[in-house]
């Protein structure tokens, strides 16, 4: 069994436990806007991820709150918060910790299969949630997009292939992220990601996901029509992410 299938098996097992978990009252929603007007800087979404199956342990020198505040000081547009416990050492409660420490909009990064996960994301302070096309059975993306709208959550729909991008567009997703890393094989293909990003409809907010390490990488994406990029493990390897993030923001045109 591959890593992705093990994660999804664990998610399915967690759903009943999640149903019995007390949820706080949802806070006021913050606008989650990654649109990049012509001539503007590439938007940078940073990430709080304490561990991953591929990278292993990452920096925990800063608390979730301290890292969220550091990202805001250094010029991030939004923060992605890993909420999976078993594989990423995350928690839905990390959303609340990040929200209390910064004014940036938050993305709940989870392996969403069910509306109960959307309820938890919204209750703990997410303004948007990740929906990964490859994780969903046929016909499930559309209903989950509708469920996000009902909960006033933006949905960032992640794709990695032309077929997945087509499914996202057919479901009328308006915020689409293209992962340069194949989440099954973990292989990186930046050229594939850029090609798919360039094929998305003009009214789609497009986000480059994975594989950006330094200012040159960010400058390269800033020269494309992409609206935003996610900077994840590169920053999570830094005990103090501010100097690197400031350099990335400068490279993005900020």
Report on the structure:
The structure is a single chain. Helices cover 38% and strands 17% of the residues. It is α/β, with parallel strands linked by helices and 254 residues long. The protein has a single domain (3-17, 39-251), classed as Alpha-Beta Barrel (TIM Barrel), CATH 3.20.20. The strands form 2 sheets. It has an 8-stranded parallel barrel, surrounded by 7 helices. A two-stranded antiparallel ribbon has the order 2-3. It starts with a helix and ends with a helix.
Summarize the structure.
The chain has 10 helices and 10 strands. The protein is an alpha/beta fold and 254 residues long.
Lay out the secondary structure.
Elements: H1 3-19, E1 43-48, E2 51-52, E3 56-57, H2 64-74, E4 78-82, H3 93-101, E5 106-109, H4 115-123, E6 128-132, H5 141-150, E7 154-159, H6 162-170, E8 175-179, H7 190-199, E9 205-209, H8 215-222, E10 228-231, H9 233-236, H10 242-251
Parallel strand pairs: 1-4, 1-10, 4-5, 5-6, 6-7, 7-8, 8-9, 9-10
Antiparallel strand pairs: 2-3
